[in-house]
Amino acid sequence: MALKSPQGLTIGDLADRTGLAVSAIRFYETHGIVHPVRNAGGHRRYGRHDLRRLSFVMAAQGMGFGLAEIAAHLQPLPAHKAPTKADWSRIAKGFRRDIKARICALEELSDKLDGCIGCGCLSLKACHLYNPDDSKAVEGPGPRNLTKSVG
């Protein structure tokens, strides 16, 4: 593995350290996740802080977060220096809030899977209790009880 040069990490170094393909790193660059600088020869050079940013993205995507959502959380962090502990604490607080909301939505979804899903079918015996006269139709199409808190 190549050592860090005084000019920063090459895209290959970053790929080796993160396990990401070079094309993926460039893709993340287009979304503002990493911010390389150009050396005198015009080649991208990355800071060690970009290792942490990419690792964070990989972990967040593994938890089901979308790239736009992740980029929005990372946007306030400094672009060309390592985030401080306080910076990471702020971003963690936002992610915790999102994760807790997802957990609540998933628990609600789990609790409703065996009951009326508010689809308007009126075929279950319970539909006259949960969705009399297809009252859920005013809330919009689809499974209203399952989708109202998810997303």
Account of the 3D structure:
The protein is mainly α. The chain has two domains: 11-112, Multidrug-efflux Transporter Regulator, Chain: A, Domain 2; 114-151, no CATH class. 50% of the residues lie in helices and 3% in strands. It contains seven helices and two strands. It has helices spanning 11-18, 22-30, 49-62, 67-74, 85-112, 127-130, 144-147; strands at residues 37-38, 44-45. It has a two-stranded antiparallel ribbon with strand order 1-2. A hairpin with a 5-residue loop joins strand 1 and strand 2. The protein is elongated and about 70 Å long. The two termini are 42 Å apart. The model has no long low-confidence stretch (mean pLDDT 83).
The radius of gyration over CA amounts to 23 Å
Order of helices and strands: HHEEHHHHH
Classify the fold: give the CATH topology of the largest domain.
Multidrug-efflux Transporter Regulator, Chain: A, Domain 2
**How would you characterize the largest beta sheet?**
2 strands, antiparallel
Task: Give the CA-based shape.
Answer: elongated
| Total number of beta strands | 2
Strand order of the largest sheet: 1-2
What fraction strand?
under 5%
> For the terminal residues, how far apart are their CA atoms?
42 Å
The helicity comes to 40-55%
The CATH architecture of the largest domain can be named as: Orthogonal Bundle
Low-pLDDT regions:
none
Quickly name the level 1 CATH class of the largest domain.
Mainly Alpha
Total individual domains: 2
Indicate the structural class. Answer: mainly alpha
SS summary, helix count? 7
Mean pLDDT: 83
